[in-house]
């Protein structure tokens, strides 16, 4: 049943088809991503009201929250791609793992840096061992592990498979790590850190946040398409279709 | 079962011939532990307070480092390649490796734990909890270290890479093992933490051998 | 006669270099496939493909008429593979290495001393293998062929560093295996000297 249900997807497992599909999607995704990111951030930074408690410094959530959410989203997508790549032996899915990993790592770094910048006015220090920040830091280490492992093999195809396996191991562990860190955090909660009660967010602040969230997702998709295209070219460079395509491109340019 | 016994026997024969493989991690463990008082001062109160984290970080580093070479010889001499091609013995081989790795690194840590208790000034109760956490936690350390060794078996860069990919996975274990010891030191109940450690162990026992087998296949494929 | 192992339009790429393309052969019981070629021509890569360790870039391998990928477990049960490396741990003795491989194939060796003795290793059974010469280590590795019950043998350079006498012994053993309905795929720099009933040869060219 599963086999026939997903049969329509089969052509996209072919590198050539996927390469051209990514190429067609890329301008739309990139355009939409830039539009929503600009809209969400200009709205959020310039027009939404300031917070009664945190003043204007809360506005960093329009970058911090989407980056943090999609840093985890990217890891899950990477693990799903890894699973598909390993179980059904689909090489383009394995290449997608390598395409997503650095993007996810950069999202994680953005979340960490903006979290630190937010922490300075709120907590009076750049870094506290807050449960979410600590989990985010561990997530960065998991990303770096996948990237380092993929690059450690002289035979690239082997490195990608092994890194895919690590991504799956990581995603199984991620919830365990997350809840362990949360438990540890409640145990060691310092007295100097005041935890804000979670306020319900006003719609005028929520809308730009949702738009920004969508923007980060679209940017992730666009960058994945971009990187997946170059991965496909690297791994398929000896294939006739790549040669033909390159010749054709050069011909068009004269 | 006959096969598994023969495989364990082979690992023990290898450990008997390569004594450095299990003696060095043990010496490393004791060495790291004795560096801390030199680095932060020997006040008994302070040592007692940081002992849980200290013991567990030293333990996970020594177990991790000991696993690095675990598959290297068998890989270089083509044993793994032929096991993967023959398939049926691979899983037994993996479980025998894990079992003997724990016997040669985890168990010695339990055996020297009285010495640690003396060095760090732990009382009777704390030592007992230390032993229980080591018994529950070191098999998980072994499982994850073996996984790290299997993943990086054919990699051009060893050592630090294995630490980079596996250390984040140790975090829950570190939190709950040292948490149990801290709770015991302050006379709080600690059975909950031990139960979580047991859950980690069962979870890892169920999944890690399969992942190790897969990693070995990929490394020769 | 039914075909056991076959290759259809097989091609292999390693490190961005095409080793071979469009390779075809069919092997039935009692036959030998003898693969020749220069260093780096892809002999070992072809054996690893046939042993199911790697996947071909294009084409497929058939086992009993069906694609290998769907029945790799069944194929592995029939397979004895000795690769480029001997599979001998140098820290263990000949006997210990033998015990390991016999336990894995679940074939008890009736008299390991007699077996090792017949391969010219008498008196060397209890010495760690790193103290043996390359040829002696190769013999320890090949001893598996004398207790294996697997019909399909895939052997990478089995004759390397063996003396003439032992090569003759080994080829006699090959003939016996073929007579029992076995099948052998092997690579070698040397030409085969025994008279094989059904020999197929493939020459792989070194390609840039």
UniProtKB/TrEMBL annotation, chain B:
<keyword id="KW-0472">Membrane</keyword>
<keyword id="KW-1003">Cell membrane</keyword>
<feature type="transmembrane region" description="Helical">
    <location>
        <begin position="194"/>
        <end position="212"/>
    </location>
</feature>
<dbReference type="InterPro" id="IPR026031">
    <property type="entry name" value="Cyt_c_CcmB_bac"/>
</dbReference>
<keyword id="KW-0812">Transmembrane</keyword>
<comment type="similarity">
    <text>Belongs to the CcmB/CycW/HelB family.</text>
</comment>
<feature type="transmembrane region" description="Helical">
    <location>
        <begin position="46"/>
        <end position="67"/>
    </location>
</feature>
<feature type="transmembrane region" description="Helical">
    <location>
        <begin position="128"/>
        <end position="151"/>
    </location>
</feature>
<feature type="transmembrane region" description="Helical">
    <location>
        <begin position="21"/>
        <end position="40"/>
    </location>
</feature>
<keyword id="KW-0201">Cytochrome c-type biogenesis</keyword>
<dbReference type="Pfam" id="PF03379">
    <property type="entry name" value="CcmB"/>
</dbReference>
<protein>
    <recommendedName>
        <fullName>Heme exporter protein B</fullName>
    </recommendedName>
</protein>
<dbReference type="InterPro" id="IPR003544">
    <property type="entry name" value="Cyt_c_biogenesis_CcmB"/>
</dbReference>
<dbReference type="GO" id="GO:1903607">
    <property type="term" value="P:cytochrome c biosynthetic process"/>
</dbReference>
<keyword id="KW-0813">Transport</keyword>
<dbReference type="GO" id="GO:0017004">
    <property type="term" value="P:cytochrome complex assembly"/>
</dbReference>
<feature type="transmembrane region" description="Helical">
    <location>
        <begin position="163"/>
        <end position="188"/>
    </location>
</feature>
<keyword id="KW-1133">Transmembrane helix</keyword>
<dbReference type="GO" id="GO:0015232">
    <property type="term" value="F:heme transmembrane transporter activity"/>
</dbReference>
<comment type="function">
    <text>Required for the export of heme to the periplasm for the biogenesis of c-type cytochromes.</text>
</comment>
<dbReference type="GO" id="GO:0005886">
    <property type="term" value="C:plasma membrane"/>
</dbReference>
<feature type="transmembrane region" description="Helical">
    <location>
        <begin position="102"/>
        <end position="122"/>
    </location>
</feature>
<keyword id="KW-0997">Cell inner membrane</keyword>
């Amino acid at each position: 049943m599963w086999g026939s249900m997903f049969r329509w997807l089969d052509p996209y497992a072919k590198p050539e088809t996927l390469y051209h599909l990514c190429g067609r999607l890329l301008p739309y995704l990139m355009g939409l991503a830039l539009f929503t990111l600009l809209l969400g951030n200009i709205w959020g930074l310039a027009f939404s009201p300031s917070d009664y408690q945190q003043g204007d410094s809360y506005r960093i959530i329009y970058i911090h929250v989407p980056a943090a959410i999609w840093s985890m989203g990217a890891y899950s997508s990477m693990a799903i791609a890894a699973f598909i790549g390993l179980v059904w032996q689909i090489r383009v899915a394995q290449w997608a793992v390598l395409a997503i990993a650095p993007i996810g790592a950069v999202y994680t770094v953005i979340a960490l840096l903006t979290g630190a910048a937010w922490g300075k006015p709120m907590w009076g220090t750049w870094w506290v061992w807050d449960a979410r920040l600590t989990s985010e830091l561990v997530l960065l280490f998991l990303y770096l592990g996948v990237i380092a492992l993929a690059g450690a093999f002289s035979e690239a195809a082997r490195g990608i498979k092994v890194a895919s396996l690590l991504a799956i191991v990581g995603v199984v562990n991620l919830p365990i790590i997350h809840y362990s860190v949360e438990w540890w955090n409640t145990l060691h909660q310092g007295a100097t850190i005041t935890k804000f009660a979670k306020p319900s967010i006003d719609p005028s602040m929520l809308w730009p946040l949702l738009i920004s969230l969508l923007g980060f997702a679209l940017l992730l998709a666009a960058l994945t398409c971009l990187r997946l295209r170059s991965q496909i070219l690297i791994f398929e460079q000896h294939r006739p279709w790549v040669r033909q395509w390159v010749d054709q491109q050069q011909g068009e340019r004269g | 079962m006959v096969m598994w016994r023969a495989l364990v026997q082979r690992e023990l024969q290898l450990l008997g011939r390569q004594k450095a493989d299990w003696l060095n991690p043990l010496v490393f463990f004791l060495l790291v532990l004795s560096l801390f008082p030199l680095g932060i001062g020997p006040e008994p109160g302070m040592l007692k307070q940081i002992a849980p984290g200290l013991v567990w970080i030293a333990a996970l580093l020594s177990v991790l480092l000991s696993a690095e070479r675990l598959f290297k010889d068998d890989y270089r001499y083509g044993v793994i390649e032929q096991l993967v091609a023959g398939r049926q013995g691979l899983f037994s081989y993996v479980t025998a490796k894990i079992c003997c790795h724990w016997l040669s690194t985890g168990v010695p840590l339990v055996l020297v734990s009285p010495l640690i208790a003396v060095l760090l000034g732990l009382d009777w109760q704390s030592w007992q909890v230390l032993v229980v956490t080591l018994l529950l936690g070191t098999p998980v350390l072994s499982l994850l270290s073996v996984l790290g060794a299997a993943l990086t078996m054919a990699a051009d860069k060893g050592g630090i890479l294995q630490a980079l990919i596996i250390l984040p996975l140790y975090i829950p274990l570190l939190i709950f093992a040292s948490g149990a010891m801290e709770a015991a030191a302050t006379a709080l109940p600690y059975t909950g933490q031990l139960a979580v450690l047991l859950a980690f162990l069962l979870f890892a026992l169920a999944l890690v051998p399969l992942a190790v087998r897969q990693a070995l296949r990929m490394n020769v494929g | 006669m039914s075909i056991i192992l076959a290759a259809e339009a097989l091609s292999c790429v390693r490190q961005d270099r095409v080793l071979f393309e469009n390779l075809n052969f069919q092997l039935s019981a009692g036959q030998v496939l003898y693969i020749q070629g220069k260093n780096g021509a892809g002999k070992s890569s072809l054996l690893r493909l046939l042993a199911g360790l790697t996947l071909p870039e294009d084409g497929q391998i058939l086992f009993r008429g069906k694609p290998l990928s769907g029945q790799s477990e069944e194929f592995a049960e029939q397979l004895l593979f000795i690769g480029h490396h001997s599979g001998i741990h140098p820290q263990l003795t000949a006997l210990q290495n033998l015990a390991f491989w016999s336990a894995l194939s679940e074939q008890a060796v009736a008299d390991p001393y007699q077996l090792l003795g017949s391969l010219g290793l008498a008196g060397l059974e209890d010495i760690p293998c790193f103290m043996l010469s390359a040829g002696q280590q190769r013999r320890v590795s090949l001893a598996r062929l004398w207790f294996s019950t697997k019909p399909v043998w895939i052997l990478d350079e089995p004759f390397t560093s063996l003396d003439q006498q032992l090569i003759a012994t080994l080829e006699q053993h090959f003939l016996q295996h073929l007579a029992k309905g076995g099948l052998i795929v092997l690579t070698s720099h040397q030409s085969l000297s025994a008279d094989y009933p059904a020999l197929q040869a493939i020459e792989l060219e070194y390609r840039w």
